[in-house]
Amino acid sequence: MIEVVLKKRRGAFTLDVAFRTADPEMSSPGVIALFGPSGCGKTTTVHAISGLLRPDAGIVRIGDATLFDSMRGIDVPAERRRIGYVFQDARLFPHLDVLKNLRYGANRAREEGPRIDFDEIVDLLGLGPLLARRPRRLSGGERQRVALGRALLCRPRLLLLDEPLASLDVARRAELLPYLERLRDRLSVPMIYVSHQFEEVLRLATHVVLLEAGRVVAEGDVTAVSIAPELRAAIGSDALGAVVEGEIEAVDSAAGLARLKVGTGRLMIQADELSAGRRVRVQLLARDLILGVEPPRGLSVRNCLEGTIVRLAPDAARTHLVEIDIGGPRLIAQVTTSASAELDLRVGRRLWVLVKTVSLRGHVYPALGAHPAPRNAESREATARTTEM
């Protein structure tokens, strides 16, 4: 359980946020994403959680530990909060190689922290081949992986990641994201992840806190926040779309397709090394969905989901956003007002939603628990060789 209630005035800016997460059914503590535009209060929030900034009032509680409570006069110093912090820049010790940077974190670990094995961290982050290198010989993505490892080896009760990919180019960002997914799935350390890139939130978060001008404007799991009206202002209409999760039922290797159960329907998605039983998360962009008021016939579109309109709202000029229940999960589609009138779209109307398989390319992500991350023998051998030197 993580509970955060913070109030802080800094000049003309006032932070006033509150969020609480607790899901005993989750197999992993998960990732809380603080999402919103620059200047909305994300970094101020994590600074207050870490103890680097003292709030004017509020509570910070992680599990049974109260780190800050203004009413009770509790303010645990930052160095005693047992919170790992990874910044935009890795902040490694330049005179130490990767192994010694990691050992520094391990040597600062407290006995009461979560059990984190040194070799497992090296394997999960792919650090074995890098152990003998100094930071100057690492790429930006490699430096951030070392920073993550060092922070985790301190055995923190919470890991804060303040836009850790912001300084990386697109290629390095894509390289690092799978490692973050593995950490989310494999470790018992809750994370708070700060970002203004919604794709990162889609891939990593189990709970989203949407901030705007120092306030929480929407909160919940990714699927709920993805259809929140407040999200449009943060990401724009082009990136607006519902996020659904489901389990792969079967894979057709010859066709390169996988069948995903979503609500009461099925989606065919590109396989991309997927296997039956894996859970994935799919974003269906509002602009890519085609609506029909009759069952479609004779079309090349592979995906057709049946649902009911639960909300119809004005969007940009001459467009409507249509929210559709497809048997639990909800989708949103963007249609012109003229199409809405011609189809007589209204709350309660039955619809058929057409989704082209190719439109989902690049919008399929592993859901929580999708990365078993087996230990890598080559990485273990490299660890052993470097440790002996």
Provide a compact summary of the structure.
With 389 residues, this protein is an alpha+beta fold. The chain has ten helices and 21 strands.
SSE layout:
Blueprint: E1 2-10, E2 13-21, E3 31-35, H1 42-50, E4 57-62, E5 65-69, E6 74-75, E7 83-86, H2 98-107, H3 118-124, H4 140-153, E8 158-162, H5 170-186, E9 191-195, H6 198-204, E10 207-212, E11 215-220, H7 222-225, H8 231-235, E12 241-252, E13 257-262, E14 265-270, E15 279-285, E16 290-292, E17 303-314, E18 319-325, E19 330-336, H9 337-342, E20 350-355, E21 364-366, H10 377-388
Tell me what the CATH architecture of the largest domain is. Answer: 3-Layer(aba) Sandwich
Q: Can you count the helices?
A: 10
The main pleated sheet reads as: 6 strands, mixed
Indicate the low-confidence ranges by residue numbers: 371-389
| Shape call | globular
CATH evolutionary superfamily of the largest domain: P-loop containing nucleotide triphosphate hydrolases
* CATH fold-type name of the largest domain: Rossmann fold
Number of domains: 2
End-to-end Cα distance: 42 Å
| Mean pLDDT across residues | 88
CA gyration radius, whole angstroms = 23 Å
* Percent in strands: 25-35%
| Approximate helicity band | 10-25%
Please list the strands of the largest sheet in the order they lie side by side.
Answer: 7-8-9-3-10-11
Q: Assign the structural class, choosing from mainly alpha, mainly beta, alpha/beta, alpha+beta, or little secondary structure.
A: alpha+beta
Keywords:
single chain; 389 residues; alpha+beta; Rossmann fold; OB fold (Dihydrolipoamide Acetyltransferase, E2P); 2 domains; 6-stranded mixed sheet; 5-stranded antiparallel sheet; 21 strands; 34% strand; globular
